[in-house]
Design brief:
Helix content: 40-55%
Radius of gyration: 19 Å
Strand content: 15-25%
Largest sheet: 9 strands, mixed
Strand order of the largest sheet: 6-5-1-9-10-11-12-13-14
CATH topology: UDP-N-acetylmuramoyl-L-alanine:D-glutamate ligase
CATH superfamily: Ribokinase
Number of domains: 1
CATH architecture: 3-Layer(aba) Sandwich
Number of strands: 14
Oligomer: single chain
Distance between the termini: 20 Å
Structural class: alpha/beta
Shape: globular
Order of helices and strands: EEHEHEHEHEEEHEHEHHEHHEEEHHH
CATH class: Alpha Beta
């Protein structure tokens, strides 16, 4: 099986259950939003929610995808930056405990944290302190980090740092890797479109986008966006929520049905889909099977809280993947 390396913002996700929404009002956090906060605010939120029901996991978009791949038995590594603190130690150890090779840089800045405040109706509100995660720079990277891997998965939040993304692409291509990019956020796509389009055409082999991101990137509706993206790179994936997804490579195109599920929390659904799809590619499965595997994992992760799943869920996923690949 081929090996996959991820690179992105190294964040620790802290899923925190609220008894009511008054906590959001206290910190002026619009329900359902993602707000960037400074170190004082994130520490105050953490302190005042200390006795709430919470769960801590390593996170960040690309890290979530790499975790999924590792659970499926793929050899993986992850490049990111954390602080010299207990949170950074937790992130590093969580990678190790999940059989992911940590290629982690350290900073004097506090580690990044994403506090996900989950309301009683399951709506999520994020207070995110990026911290050391966004200090990853071109000078942190060396050729050795990329050696021995076949695929590089890059999260779209890095698109804002053009020099870093260019250095990542140069080192990946020097090592003959295929690069996959998850566009991550429609507003980041819009803000960086003049850089992103030519960059994608020159360096990216696989692009993942949801409906909004695909529209921002191409100005087209999902299927038209799929065709436009597939003309830029080897493989295009456009996810359309409850309707499933579309995948295309060359002249081959498939509509992938969604998996029936009982949604609780959509955190990490796109990251999980990417894990399944890349797992399929790493095993040289057909394009439609790659999409179906992605759909299975995305459908399972939204049945629980947060972007991580327990052993029983992964056992279900592996059984369903075996059914897909045996056909």
């Amino acid at each position: 099986m081929q090996r996959v390396l991820g690179i992105g913002n190294a964040l620790v996700d802290i899923m925190t259950r609220l008894e009511d929404d008054s906590f959001l009002e206290k910190f002026n956090l619009p329900k359902g939003s993602m707000q960037l906060v400074d170190t004082d605010i994130v520490n105050k939120i953490a302190s005042e929610s200390e006795n709430f029901d919470k769960k801590r996991t390593s996170g960040g978009s690309a890290a979530n995808t790499i975790h999924g791949l590792a659970h499926l038995g793929v050899e993986t590594g992850f490049i990111g930056k954390v602080g010299n603190d207990e949170t950074g130690d937790f992130f590093y150890k969580d990678l190790q405990d999940n059989n992911i090779k940590p290629l982690i840089l350290r900073s004097k800045t506090e580690s990044g944290r994403a506090i996900a405040l989950v309301s009683p109706d399951s709506e999520r509100t994020f207070a995110t302190f990026l911290g050391a995660a966004v200090e990853l720079s071109p000078s942190d990277l060396n050729d050795e980090m990329f050696m021995g891997y076949n695929y590089l998965h890059v999260e779209g939040y890095l698109v804002q740092n053009h020099d870093l993304l260019s250095e990542i692409a140069e080192k990946a291509k020097k090592n003959h890797m295929k690069i996959s990019l998850d566009l991550a956020s429609f507003n980041i796509v819009e803000e960086n479109i003049d850089f992103l389009r030519p960059f994608a055409e020159d360096f990216i082999d696989i692009i993942f986008a949801n409906e909004e991101e695909a529209s921002s990137f191409t100005g087209k509706e999902p299927e038209g966006a799929l065709d436009a993206i597939a003309a830029m790179c080897e493989t295009a994936v456009v996810k359309v929520g409850k309707k499933g997804s579309f995948v295309k490579s060359g002249n081959e195109k498939h509509a992938i049905d969604p998996v029936r599920s009982s949604p609780v929390d959509t955190t990490g659904a796109g990251d999980a889909y990417a894990a399944g799809f890349l797992f399929g590619l790493a095993n040289n499965y057909s394009l439609d099977k790659c999409g179906k595997i992605g759909s299975v994992i995305a459908g399972k992760v939204i049945e629980g809280t947060g972007a991580k799943m327990d052993y029983n869920k992964w056992s279900e996923i592996k059984r369903e993947i075996n059914e897909i690949i045996s056909v």
